[in-house]
Amino acid sequence: MKRKVAILGATGAVGQRFIQLLQDHPWFEIEVLAASVRSADKKYKDTRKWILSSDCPPEINEMTVVNTDIKSVEKAGNVDFVFSALPGGIAGPVEEEFAMKYPVVSKASAHRLEVDIPLLIPEVNPDHLAIIPIQKSNRNWNGFISTDPNCSTIQLVITLKPLMTFGLKKVIISTMQALSGAGYPGVASLEIIDNVIPFINKEEEKTESEPLKILGTFDGTRVQQANIAISSSCNRVNVKDGHLQSVFVELEEETSIEEVVKSFEKFKGKPQRLGLPSAPDNPIIVRGEENRPQPRYDRDEGKGMSVVVGRIRNDPILTVKYMCLGHNTIRGAAGAGILSAELMAVEGYI
Amino acid sequence: MKRKVAILGATGAVGQRFIQLLQDHPWFEIEVLAASVRSADKKYKDTRKWILSSDCPPEINEMTVVNTDIKSVEKAGNVDFVFSALPGGIAGPVEEEFAMKYPVVSKASAHRLEVDIPLLIPEVNPDHLAIIPIQKSNRNWNGFISTDPNCSTIQLVITLKPLMTFGLKKVIISTMQALSGAGYPGVASLEIIDNVIPFINKEEEKTESEPLKILGTFDGTRVQQANIAISSSCNRVNVKDGHLQSVFVELEEETSIEEVVKSFEKFKGKPQRLGLPSAPDNPIIVRGEENRPQPRYDRDEGKGMSVVVGRIRNDPILTVKYMCLGHNTIRGAAGAGILSAELMAVEGYI
Amino acid sequence: MKRKVAILGATGAVGQRFIQLLQDHPWFEIEVLAASVRSADKKYKDTRKWILSSDCPPEINEMTVVNTDIKSVEKAGNVDFVFSALPGGIAGPVEEEFAMKYPVVSKASAHRLEVDIPLLIPEVNPDHLAIIPIQKSNRNWNGFISTDPNCSTIQLVITLKPLMTFGLKKVIISTMQALSGAGYPGVASLEIIDNVIPFINKEEEKTESEPLKILGTFDGTRVQQANIAISSSCNRVNVKDGHLQSVFVELEEETSIEEVVKSFEKFKGKPQRLGLPSAPDNPIIVRGEENRPQPRYDRDEGKGMSVVVGRIRNDPILTVKYMCLGHNTIRGAAGAGILSAELMAVEGYI
Amino acid sequence: MKRKVAILGATGAVGQRFIQLLQDHPWFEIEVLAASVRSADKKYKDTRKWILSSDCPPEINEMTVVNTDIKSVEKAGNVDFVFSALPGGIAGPVEEEFAMKYPVVSKASAHRLEVDIPLLIPEVNPDHLAIIPIQKSNRNWNGFISTDPNCSTIQLVITLKPLMTFGLKKVIISTMQALSGAGYPGVASLEIIDNVIPFINKEEEKTESEPLKILGTFDGTRVQQANIAISSSCNRVNVKDGHLQSVFVELEEETSIEEVVKSFEKFKGKPQRLGLPSAPDNPIIVRGEENRPQPRYDRDEGKGMSVVVGRIRNDPILTVKYMCLGHNTIRGAAGAGILSAELMAVEGYI
User: Fold this and answer.
1) One domain for residues D196 and D315
2) Is the Cβ pair A188, C192 closer than 8 Å?
3) Three-state DSSP class for D17?
4) Which of A254, B176, D99, D111 is the most exposed, fewest CB within 10 Å of its CB?
5) Is-contact B174 A246, C-beta < 8 A?
6) Of B301, B4, B336, which Cα lies nearest the Cα of B150?
7) pTM
8) Quick one: closest CA in A to C239, which residue?
9) What pLDDT is stored for residue A63 in this prediction?
10) Of A126, A123, A116, whose CA–CA distance to A347 is shortest?
11) Which of these, C309, C305, C299, C243, lies nearest to C272 by C-alpha position?
């Protein structure tokens, strides 16, 4: 018996990826598609422009979309939990409404930094799920909210986790982010042709704050933020999928490049140990070529769930510098949510 | 009477820019076009694919290209000095041959780091020209070599110069560089469509070493390297012209963003004071929008000779971070050479 | 004394081009900027994203935008005539309201095919302006409406006009149209990266019908449609500006390629004879290279007002085939309107 | 027992596709990789830049490349037949050398139009294989040459074949072709960014002549050319893979759009009837949307072996117009060769 799921924000770019990745999922099946009033009561195929390369499954196209409120969703079907791909602006109250009754696995930024809500990367901080009972008790909810980080944060933090053993202190990143990160319609073609846009709204703030929580320590009551400093400069480039980052890190311990490479290559997390359906064999793949990773060549590694690292070299100012790449709408969005839900399913939260 | 000039490497991407920018130049005129044996003795129009938007001037097209040796050039015309746009690999000995008799203003990397050869940005270190007499004496040359820095170095260092007054200590950059920086044919379209290439051969080494010499102090005998540290990560993006850089700097003195902005805006150099023909009114232009500079919109500022800076903000790890943009084949290449020659003309070197 | 003009639809992509091209215009000056309610009463700079490379003139930025109704415009200033860059959907009634009092030079499609309204290309059918008195009498208007054709139509018809002397019968075109033709935000970057979109709404209908009116004969009472047949297939490609067309034509008379080339090269119209300020020296420029015209290299010919033709060759099925290129937002939009107004000014219509 | 094959021209863009598509092929296995002298005696991984998204198989990377002469190939292994992905210029004599002993399935243009050599599309003219015995007898060869058409030709002709039943008379096409069609390095990025190139060397000649042979009738002795006329205009656009064509056709019989659609949809060929491993279920897929096919969305249909057609509509001049799209390096190149070889295997030619 598969768990039945509602997707809130099902018509957007991330909602579409959820639909694509949940096709033939062994544990979960889509029961309800919810979106804004504008789409409610229409067939899914009449609500949006499908932007993925593979066609939308015909049976999904024929489903009737409902409004994103708990009554409408419950009228449309019995669901075990909810994926939220809602826009940041409206996710806050809607997710809280659902959390009173249902587990909410959210890609939205609204609740990420709240102290009793997990900000989860299953390979990095699975123990943070233990905040959930505290959250339910605090808020008197039958359900709960667990959040997934910002797309750029996820891939970065997966590479920072193994570096924690070397005494990670400082992280400077400059990102080159893909168009799909802005959703649809997102970036106008007239803005990005023959161009780079050196600004993404709120992205620097997110990538500077979220990792501190994710890499923090759960002390049984709350998460103590990690004692690291991050500086970020975020840019939009003319690439369809795949965020690429120049990363400069300072490590307290003297460390060789070989040790860093080894720490990346041998890094595995709970999803790998549990064999979760969406877990890639290797959360981090290291490429040895002088000019990799590259978005078009490397974004689909591990079905888009692996982070690809390359050009690991000594840094003349900090300690080490490297490039990292992740698929922003798979590992950075819908795939992240599904992997989180898989972990929660195994751990008994959903 | 205009000074007559030979262009070595006249058929390449930088050579073409020299030709374009020297059209109607008030002080210089093209007398000889020199290139490799493959092009020698052909009409210029039959030697290359012209890659600039404005057509090649017809009278240039009809000129006969000669081989890049001193005899062939002298046979073709009397020249007062030489611009070298030769490829790094072959520039070394050829430029030395010409320097025995002629001033050589070189865009090539071969001699940049040699101790008695200026590495010049006219707004930044015009006093380094005083190495030239030492060079001539050292090498027993009637002419001399003066070099222009790497394209990414030039725009970076123009923005670093005013920051020196605040006690500049550390600089971390991540670049997003344009296709024209790789010359023609350069980057294959199949490599860059929907992609970023996180590697440019030797670019990180150049941008980490050249600024130390340019920002160094000439003590009457030699240049003492500046006491700053630089770390660089270089990327190729799908943009025609205009290198964009994320820059993070550490300053010793406490400084406000307003003071940094003011130091950029009021920065002028000797070319501005002398009113050199190719000098932009403002070497640095500061844009206040949250999403500028952008290559397609800002690269032509000051006829491609201004560096455009934006997003100047506090850095959580170092002191300040900002974006800077420069036109890589104008300010970063041919325009740099011409401005250098203009300064040398006024100063009596050519 | 310059004629004062209001721009209706001043905030859109074509409105911006009108503003740019009217800077320093010798005959016309901008008096009023009008746009939809959403922009009314705001400073121009606060109403839109400026999408052109050169900055918006500061004095324009400070102008207050008014609503596009006649009262609001009149309250804002005294105008001699009106440029309409309104969206097709709303242009119809608004232009009619203004035409009761003012000459309206319209880029909108609403009235193009009406029998008593000129569809004007100044080089092609300047005599069609004689419909205006009939229109004013018919409609009892003090002003009038004159329309400019669709962007793809204009460049095509300029090349068809000289071919009329050879007995033009059939025209088949396949277009590759630029992003700016869709306005801003227009085409989403996610749709066009690594892609072509083989459909542009209503474009095939427009390019198949409008030329018949433009190339038709004014018999003193009305325009008799030209007896030619046109078939069109329209595509959007990843190019910023410049529509490129593959054109196949059937001519009744036996004609050599040389004669066709000559007919293009010697083609001049009334704007050239009158020396109108925006008239290019050559409405058609023929390139002899095997691979021209190309959008990025040729779109700015004649300040964007020339149509560039190339690859003129025999056609195995019809008679001749060739490529033609025009700048879609200059010759195809704002520049077309300004040139039309210049002609009307000389002819005493405005 | 799989048939063993040598790939001539194994290092180029088409050679790489052959390698990719032959991985795990049920009938064929790669025994020898041959390329020019420059690559000979090196490991495959040291000979080229791999340009496909999926990595080159490691065991292929370790194979030693040999020179493309029969002795070197025979020394390297026993092969049953040969795929030729050689450049047009050198394919002629090399293929003839191999054909004296081996079946040669060639993607090169050298022999396509020779009267006793098949120009094969397995769905279209499988009966033309019967020329092979005549060829062997004519030329006194133990092997033979069979050729695959130009990439644009293949996808076009697959759509023309079902139209033959309606009395196909005239075909006019304008193509928008992908970058990968030019091989690697192929088109320089500086040439195609923000641009279209309206010229591809020899492409118009090939697409105008090859279909006449393919659609011709084998009368037991030779192929009688089909009595149709074709005019072609070929353009390069900024798309990675997938050639898109605007097609205008004249049919003798009165035909409705529905009948044309049906003829496309029901079209199957011998590869489908035989269930060949590389045969797509549907050689032609019809999309009903107003804006399809599009290269990025539709090029991988049928694993890149289906041609996707859309926008089928009446033509005001000829009879019908439509868009067609095919993956140029799969259906248009390596996949075409493999499907041809599969047919020849079943028919006993190899």
Assistant:
1) yes
2) no
3) helix
4) A254
5) yes
6) B336
7) 0.97
8) A193
9) 98
10) A126
11) C305
**Token pair in block for residue B238:** 């799908």
How many CB atoms sit inside 10 A of residue B159's CB? 27
Residue A22 corresponds to which tokens in the numbers above? 């949940």
Residues forming beta bridges with residue D32, ordered by sequence position: D6
User: Exposed/middle/buried for B71, CB within 10 Å: 0-12, 13-18, 19+?
Assistant: exposed
DSSP D53-106: SSPPPHHHHTSBPEESSHHHHHHH---SEEEE---HHHHHHHHHHHHTTSEEEE
- The CA distance from C243 to C237, in Å, is 9
Structure confidence by residue, pLDDT tens digits, B82-91: 999 999 889 9
Question: In this complex, which of A53, A296, A297 lies closest to D297 when CB atoms are compared?
Answer: A53
Domain span at residue C41 reads 3-150+333-346
C17 and C121 co-located in one domain: yes
At residue A60, what are phi and psi to the nearest 5 degrees? Answer: -70, -45
Least CB-CB distance to A188: which of C188, C194, C238? C188
Q: Are D157 and D228 members of one domain?
A: yes
What confidence score (pLDDT) does residue D1 get? 87
Both B207 and B138 in one domain: the answer is: no
- From A63's Cα to the closest Cα of chain C, the distance in A is 25
Q: Say yes or no: B193 contacts chain D, CB-CB below 8 A.
A: yes
Q: Which two structure tokens, joined as six digits, stand for D253?
A: 């019989």
What is d(CA A112, CA A133) in angstroms, rounded to the nearest whole number?
A: 17
Cα separation, B212 vs B215, whole angstroms: 5
How many angstroms separate the CA atoms of B170 and A248, rounded?
13
What CATH number is given to the structural domain containing B303? 3.30.360.10
* Helices A335-346, A13-22: crossing angle, 10 deg rounding: 50
Q: Total domain count for chain A?
A: 2
Best of C49, C190, C297 to disrupt the B interface (most B CBs within 10 Å) is C297
What is residue C120's three-state secondary structure? coil
CATH number of the domain residue A89 falls in: 3.40.50.720
Contact B131, B118 (CB under 8 A): yes
Q: Is D194 on the interface with B (CB under 8 A)?
A: yes
| Owner of token pair 């920086």 | B181
Q: Residue type at A147? A: T
Residue keyed to tokens 């599309």: D121
CB D272 within 8 A of CB D279: yes
Side chain identity, residue C116 = D
- The token duo for D74 is 């025979």
Residues B211-260: tens digit of each pLDDT: 999 999 999 999 999 999 999 999 999 999 999 999 999 999 999 999 99
Which of B111, B151, B234, B324 is catalytic? The answer is B151
CA distances from C124 to A191, C156, C162, C267 (A): 35, 11, 9, 10
pLDDT lower than 50: segments of chain A: none
Q: Is B266 exposed, middle or buried (0-12, 13-18, 19+ CB in 10 A)?
A: exposed
Which of D56, D49, D48 lies closest to D18 in space, CA to CA? D56
- Judgement on whether residues D18 and D134 belong to the same structural domain of the protein: yes
Query: What's the DSSP call for residue A179?
Result: G
**Partners of chain B (3+ Cβ pairs below 8 A):** A, C, D
Distance CA D298, CA A120 (A): 36
Token digits for D273? 């009837």
The position carrying tokens 């003798």 is: D252
Give the 3-state secondary structure of residue C207: helix
User: What is the distance between the alpha carbons of residues D182 and D175, in angstroms, rounded to a whole number?
Assistant: 14
- For residues A234, A239, A243 and A246, what is the CA-based torsion angle, rounded to 10 degrees? -60
Tell me which residue of B298, C299, B204, B330 sits closest to A196, measured CA to CA.
Answer: B298
With contact defined as beta carbons under 8 Å apart, do C151 and C329 qualify? yes
User: What's the gap in Å between the CA of D54 and the closest CA on chain B?
Assistant: 14
Residue D201 token pair: 């060397």
Whether D22 and D97 share a structural domain = yes
Does residue B35 come out as left (phi exceeding 0), alpha (psi in the -120 to 50 range) or beta? beta
Residue B243 is a catalytic residue: yes
